[in-house]
Amino acid sequence: MSNLLSPVERYYSDKLAQFGARPQGVDWNGQEGQVKRFEQLCKLLPEGGDFSVADVGCGYGALLDFLSQRSKGVNYIGLDISAAMIEAAARLHAQEPNAKFIVGTKPEGEVEFAIASGIFNVKLGADAASWSAYIVDTLESMDAFTTKGFSFNCLTGYSDPERMRSDLHYADPCELFDLCKRRFARNVALLHDYDLYEFTILVRK
């Protein structure tokens, strides 16, 4: 797994160095799309706060900013394979008493929820079979350390063929929905109606 993700870590660290702590620094086009993604992913979460959440692939901590505007009492753990991202996130959110940032892919103990935004998109030179196995392994890990559920997004295999790039992974939403439904929970939602070339899956335990 480390061999698979090492190029990805360098890719995102380079993006942060180039663009800084803003959406382009985690390889998103802009603020509007980033917020729209967070809105879909956070449909999993209860309103009003008082829950714990792990942000898998947290980047510079933009999801924490989004959550802080909507909820109080959130216990947040940001996880990222890029040490540069974690350093930037910790610096930007040094005044957040209920937030911590860790280099890695999973928290030390259980949390109620986990969210993963964009971590399955950039495969670079990885082959399709290895990348698909990485996705399944990551979902199994998220299932293991959460008690109430998790959500994630992927670029969609329904994207326009002429716009698809060889260094990105385009997933089959029906295949991943079926996987989550059969393996993780009875209550699974597939969201594919928010005008981006991607989909979001919510797994409620």
Walkthrough of the structure:
The protein is an alpha/beta fold and 205 residues long. 38% of the residues lie in helices and 26% in strands. The protein contains 6 helices and 8 strands; from the N terminus they run H-H-E-H-E-H-E-E-H-E-E-H-E-E. The chain has helices at 2-19, 31-41, 62-70, 83-92, 128-145, 173-183, and strands at residues 49-56, 72-80, 99-103, 111-116, 146-156, 170-171, 187-191, 198-204. It starts with a helix and ends with a strand.
Short description:
With 205 residues, the chain is of the alpha/beta class.
What are the secondary-structure elements, in order, as H or E?
HHEHEHEEHEEHEE
CATH topology grouping: Rossmann fold
How large a portion of the residues is in β-strands, by DSSP E? Answer: 25-35%
**Domain module tally:** 1
Gross morphology: globular
Under CATH at level 1, the class stands as: Alpha Beta
SS element count, helices: 6
List keywords for this structure.
205 residues, alpha/beta, Rossmann fold
Write the layout of secondary structure elements.
Blueprint: H1 2-19, H2 31-41, E1 49-56, H3 62-70, E2 72-80, H4 83-92, E3 99-103, E4 111-116, H5 128-145, E5 146-156, E6 170-171, H6 173-183, E7 187-191, E8 198-204
Parallel strand pairs: 1-2, 1-4, 2-3, 4-5, 5-6
Antiparallel strand pairs: 5-8, 7-8
